[in-house]
Design goal:
mainly beta; 1 helix; globular; BacA/B
Length: about 140
């Protein structure tokens, strides 16, 4: 299997520990927003928005109720919400995803559960779509 992150060290959502900027274990629970730059792995619970300038892996024990934005998003656990990935979304065989996906590239492994919708974008049209999405969300808040 090819590397999700392009360095050849990843297999089925697992990377060498030295490449992970942030790691959140299975016994950690966060209610609030999570923002970081680089690569990270979350095996715990998060309720709130997750914004990553880089790649994020949700391990098979993760329980995420959140809108997620990142370059590459790998889902191995349970995620409910919307994922916007600028490069790729990968749903591993252990994943249970409910919500909306927006990405130029999607890989769903055999056994993954996907309940929702997917909008496939090109890299250039995705920027336009996200700008329009932000405008519509701003109007909804008013």
């Amino acid at each position: 299997m090819g590397s999700v992150f392009g360095n050849g060290k990843e297999e089925n959502g697992k990377r060498a520990v030295e490449d992970i900027i942030i790691y959140m274990g299975k016994n950690v629970e966060i209610k609030g927003n999570v923002n970081f730059e680089g690569s990270g792995r979350i095996d715990g619970k998060v309720e709130g928005k997750i914004t990553v300038k880089g790649s994020i892996i949700f391990g098979d024990g993760a329980v995420i109720t959140s809108d997620v934005e990142g370059d590459t998003v790998v889902v191995g656990g349970k995620v409910t919400g919307r994922i916007v990935a600028h490069q790729k979304i990968q749903l591993l065989r252990t994943s249970i995803f409910t919500g909306d996906l927006i990405t130029p590239s999607l890989l769903i492994e055999d056994g993954a559960q996907f309940n929702g919708s997917c909008k496939m974008t090109s890299h250039s049209s995705q920027e336009h779509y996200e700008a329009e999405l932000m405008k519509s969300e701003a109007m909804a808040v008013r």
